[in-house]
Amino acid sequence: MTLRLSEEQAEALRRRAEKEGRSVEQVVRAAVDEYIARHDADEEVRRLGIATVKRWRSVLGRLGE
User: Locate the Ribbon-helix-helix protein CopG domain: which residues (predicted)?
Assistant: First the structure.
C-alpha cells in the first residue's frame, strides 16, 4: 500500500510518532484501527436507533401528539 501525504502531514506525523516514542507505521496503524472502530460503532448505533424507532413507532407517535 502506498500512502501519499502532504509534506505538512508527513512532518506532523513524524513529530507525533517521535513524541510518543513509536514508529510512524505504528502511529498510522493505530489511527486506522481507531477510525475503523469509531465508524463501526457509529453504524451500530444507527442500526439500533432504526430498530428502536420501528419497535416503538406507535408509542413515539402518541407522544408526539
Answer: 2-38
